[in-house]
Amino acid sequence: xxxxxxxxxxxxxxxxxxxxxxxxxxxxxxxxxxxxxxxxxxxxxxxxxxxxxxxxxxxxxxxxxxxxxxxxxxxxxxxxxxxxxxxxxxxxxxxxxxxxxxxxxxxxxxxxxxxxxxxxxxxxxxxxxxxxxxxxxxxxxxxxxxxxxxxxxxxxxxxxxxxxxxxxxxxxxxxxxxxxxxxxxxxxxxxxxxxxxxxxxxxxxxxxxxxxxxxxxxxxxxxxxxxxxxxxxxxxxxxxxxxxxxxxxxxxxxxxxxxxxxxxxxxxxxxxxxxxxxxxxxxxxxxxxxxxxxxxxxxxxxxxxxxxxxxxxxxxxxxxxxxxxxxxxxxxxxxxxxxxxxxxxxxxxxxxxxxxxxxxxxxx
Length: 364
Ligand code: F0G
Known about the structure:
Helix 6 links the parallel strand 4 (115-121) and strand 5 (139-143). This protein is of the alpha/beta class. Helix content is 44%, strand content 14%. The strands form 2 sheets. The protein has a 6-stranded mixed β-sheet, with helices on both faces. Strands 5-4-3-6 form a 4-stranded parallel β-sheet. The chain contains 16 helices and 10 strands. The N and C termini lie far apart (56 Å). It is globular and about 65 Å long. It has helices at 2-13, 18-21, 48-54, 74-87, 100-111, 127-136, 147-160, 171-177, 179-188, 203-217, 237-240, 262-271, 281-295, 301-312, 335-341, 355-362, and strands spanning 44-46, 59-64, 92-96, 115-121, 139-143, 164-165, 194-198, 226-232, 275-279, 322-327. Ligand F0G binds at residues 72, 74, 97-101, 168, 198-204, 253-254, 300, 302-303, 328-329.
């Protein structure tokens, strides 16, 4: 009886969220209020069909970070950024966003009882992300400009007015996001050979590197991975070596021309002997469809850039390597792209509602 009860209780308690799970590695104290939606602990899923395409006896896994509470990796950083903002007495937060940061900031701010202001590029945020920010109760301000302009504005607003900036220039964001690396090591037993990640502002590639280095120093892993960053070809300032004034890509999450963490991202790439590579929208969409139709994994287009990138540079992969591709956001975030870019011969409409008509279409 007692045993059943305690088992039930521990099941109910379950995973405590990132701040409790990795407390000793994070800048929190007993005084920090923990604002959590029990984010983190996302699956590392083998993707054999991708491994097969790479060849060379490699093992490939995807880190399904779209399974976080608001559907993207942003929750890893937001639990810490919002907890620290609350600890400091903030009443409201602000961010610029291509969509996912705004959804995450809105959810965590509202859970903490704070106001949330989000600036988005009008017309360039995927439907699911906009729906989230609205329903979570953020003030959504769509500007007639792109993400880079929105980020400049929110930096100034946060300087002048009593609102806390929760873009990844807030150091707590990257501190929280580094837990992705901890989880990869905790699951694999060591760091992988390569960590493939889509790059927009360069925050996540920086955070993963921080996490691997910290775990390495703590003796939790013996080696460090190469950080392999992938940008969309129409929004590839780091690859090209200069800002892009009018970035364009189907992967709206990474439609960024002047990354906020540019220097840190390059430092991570250099220290890890990794690289930055551009992938075309066509390559992104191919990987996006491949993951869904071959592996049953629905990620958003920006996330598929990590897999598209791996396939693009597969000739550089060492034999027998272990590779992790980070799938940063859930596919349901962007239903428009999914419908527009699925194969149109799959969707047959106007069928008579009879068994015979359906069977005929099925080819029986
Ligand atoms: N993947 C997804 C799904 C994203 O939403 C982002 C960034 C990235 C990758 C790139 O990560 O910026 O750390 O290099 N999204 C931000 C936002 C810009 O506003 O949601 P990064």
